[in-house]
Each structure stands twice: as structure tokens, then as C-alpha cells.
Recover the amino acids of this structure.
């Protein structure tokens, strides 16, 4: 079972964040600076009063290590690990991968030195490359039944825990659209590329001159977004791999591949209505979030990981943000126009070579605790 790539579009509600990103503080003049020096940072406390999880008391005193390649969640992982230790007696040391280092290179070097982490947060491709030789088999773990559609199987076995389910498309600010048009906005009413353009034109006529935020970062415009031409081949990871191999083998001519031309058509639309059209290389990521939250724009070509930026820019959890698909054509029946892309951006692999039985058991319990305990 390959991980599911296309998920049903959520037509209302918050853009929920599964990762926390840091603001750079850079400004390029597109909007006002949202930073308030008097603002207090507030945290939602974790309710630890209810905990029905059954801990294995024989594991108390065990220490395990977790290699973290997702810097945005380092602090959260440390706090969660501390809570787990209070309950279980198992110490979890969260080891960050140095910014700029390759997670794959890091974990391989640790294996070569004979000191691999008990568990490692890695990219899916890293797990596929390493699992059969180095990982513990997780096929029988209880959380597997809860993760159907997001699991990565390697020759019929599960070697990793799916983490950070992230989706992307066109984020909308519902209140901005409704205020500009003077009517309620139903995201389900926009089903094609032409209908999206019609909505954009209506917003322009209503006074929002450039209703789209589109940041300059190459990881967003290239690495994240160009994947659509593969992922929308037939909507699964297997299909994406199939079209990639066909293109590499010369069976499909990329220049005439319909998903590429459709992708570029939509990209041209976003460029036309881009708030930073006059200076696209000055379109700082954080400024795009500010413009969306302030109502200067109504849409942002991005993923759910952008929520912390939008929140920092002034949005609240009570505001209505959501996703529209990245519309590829005018075919209402095309799944690409009905869904957004979503998949686990990271996987947790457990060491099956060096870790002791107790360490493996503690790492497995930690993963189950994340899923099944009220605290986790």
C-alpha cells in the first residue's frame, strides 16, 4: 500500500499546522510589520490530568535517542518527550540534525560509527533506502491500523511511522473574500480553472487589485509545487513514480505531457494576479503571510505548514482559512480539481541493528503513546 497523495479538499475551517516555522523578520515593503514588541507569547497548556495509556513499567529507566530532521518541531518534541518521561520513566533525547545537513548522511554516519539513534525522523526516500538493512519491523504495531493510506510498505512490511501529514494547494481567507464581494463564500462553488479566474476577476473589480500571494522561495515554487505534474498523473505515489520512470525512459515526452501544460497554465494565472508581480524576487515569504492575514490578498499558493506564519501575521484560530485545489483545467470530474495533495512529509524509523530489546520496546511504546494516549 503506497501513501495516499491526493486527499479530499477541506472546504472550510482552519489551515491546521503540523509544524512550527520561524519568522525571518525581513521586510520588502508589501505590507506593514506585524511584530508587536509588547505582545505576549501564549501557549495552550497540555492537559495531563487524564491518561489511560498503559505503560510498561519494566521499561522505566531506559534511555533512547530520537534523531530529528524537522527543525520546526524540535522544541515541541523536547516538551513532549519530557511529558512522556514523567509518565513512563523512559528518557528520550531529541537530537537535532544540524541546519543544512542531510538527514540521510547524518544517520548513515552514525551507523558507521556504531552509535545510531534508537529512532530517526527521516524523509520517506531515506527510509526506503535504509529500512530493510537497518530498521526494526513495525508491521504488527497497533497504530498501523490507524494510518491506512499513509503507510509506506517495503516488500510487504512496514518499517516507519508516518509523521507530519502536510497538504498544499491554494489557501484562502474566507473573510476577505466575503467582505470584498458582499456575500457568503462557498469554496465548493469553485470547481475549475475558469471558475477560479472568474472569482479572481470579481475580487479585482471589488478593489483587491492583486488577490494572490506568491512567495519567491525556490523550495515552494519549484521543489514543492512542480511535483503536481507527477502526483496528478493518477493520484497515488505509485502513479507518480510510474510517470517519472516513463519520462526518464523517453516513453512520455515531458514537453507534450498534459499535466505540465496544465500546471503552467495555472501558474501563469497566479503570476498574473500576484501581489508582488512588479517585484517577484522581492516577495518575502513572511510578507506574503502578512498580506493574506491583513486582507491585501485573498489567496496564497502554499501548504498547511504556513499556518504559524499566518498566525504570527495576525490571524486567529477562530478565523476561517482553508484550501482550494490547484485547479489544472476546466474538467469538473478531474480529481485534481476536487482534492488537495497531502502526504506524510516525514517518517520515523526505528533501529533494528544496534538498539537493545528494551530500547526498541521503549521506542515502540513512545510511538504508540503519541497515537493512543490522551496526552500524546
Amino acid at each position: 500500500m503506497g501513501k495516499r497523495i491526493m486527499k479530499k479538499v477541506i472546504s472550510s475551517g482552519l489551515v491546521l499546522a503540523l509544524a512550527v516555522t520561524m519568522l525571518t523578520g525581513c521586510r520588502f515593503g508589501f505590507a506593514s510589520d506585524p511584530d508587536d514588541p509588547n505582545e505576549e507569547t501564549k501557549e495552550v497548556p497540555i492537559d495531563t490530568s487524564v491518561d489511560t495509556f498503559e505503560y510498561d513499567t519494566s521499561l522505566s529507566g531506559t534511555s533512547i535517542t530520537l534523531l530529528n530532521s524537522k527543525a520546526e518541531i524540535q522544541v515541541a518534541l523536547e516538551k513532549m518527550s519530557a511529558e512522556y518521561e514523567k509518565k513512563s520513566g523512559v528518557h528520550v533525547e531529541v537530537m537535532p540534525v544540524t541546519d543544512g545537513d542531510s538527514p540521510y548522511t547524518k544517520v548513515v554516519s552514525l551507523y558507521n560509527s556504531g552509535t545510531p539513534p534508537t529512532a530517526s525522523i527521516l524523509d520517506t526516500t531515506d527510509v526506503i533506502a535504509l529500512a530493510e538493512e537497518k530498521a526494526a519491523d513495525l508491521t504488527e504495531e497497533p497504530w498501523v491500523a490507524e494510518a491506512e493510506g499513509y503507510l509506506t510498505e517495503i516488500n510487504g512490511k512496514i518499517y516507519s511511522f508516518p509523521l507530519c501529514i502536510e497538504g498544499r494547494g491554494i489557501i484562502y481567507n474566507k473573510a476577505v473574500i466575503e467582505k470584498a464581494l458582499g456575500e457568503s463564500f462557498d469554496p465548493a462553488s469553485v470547481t475549475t480553472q475558469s471558475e477560479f479566474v472568474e472569482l479572481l476577476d470579481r475580487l479585482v473589480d471589488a478593489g483587491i487589485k492583486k488577490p494572490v500571494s506568491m512567495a519567491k522561495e525556490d523550495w515552494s515554487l519549484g521543489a514543492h509545487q512542480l511535483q503536481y505534474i507527477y502526483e496528478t498523473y493518477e493520484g497515488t505515489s505509485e502513479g507518480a513514480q510510474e510517470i517519472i520512470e516513463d519520462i526518464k525512459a523517453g516513453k512520455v515526452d515531458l514537453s507534450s505531457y498534459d499535466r505540465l501544460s496544465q500546471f503552467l497554465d495555472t501558474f501563469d494565472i497566479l503570476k498574473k494576479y500576484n501581489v508582488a508581480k512588479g517585484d517577484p524576487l522581492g516577495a518575502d515569504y513572511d510578507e506574503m503571510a502578512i498580506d493574506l492575514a491583513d486582507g491585501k490578498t485573498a489567496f496564497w499558493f502554499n501548504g498547511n505548514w504556513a499556518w504559524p506564519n499566518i498566525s504570527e501575521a495576525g490571524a486567529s484560530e477562530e478565523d476561517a482559512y482553508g484550501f482550494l485545489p490547484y485547479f489544472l483545467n476546466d474538467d469538473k470530474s478531474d480529481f485534481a480539481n476536487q482534492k488537495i495533495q497531502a502526504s506524510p512529509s516525514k517518517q520515523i524509523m526505528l533501529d533494528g541493528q544496534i538498539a537493545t530489546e528494551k530500547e526498541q520496546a521503549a521506542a515502540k511504546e513512545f510511538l504508540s503513546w503519541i497515537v493512543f494516549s490522551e496526552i500524546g
In short: The chain has two domains: 8-16+167-341, 57-165+344-372. Residues 8-37 have pLDDT under 50 and may be disordered.
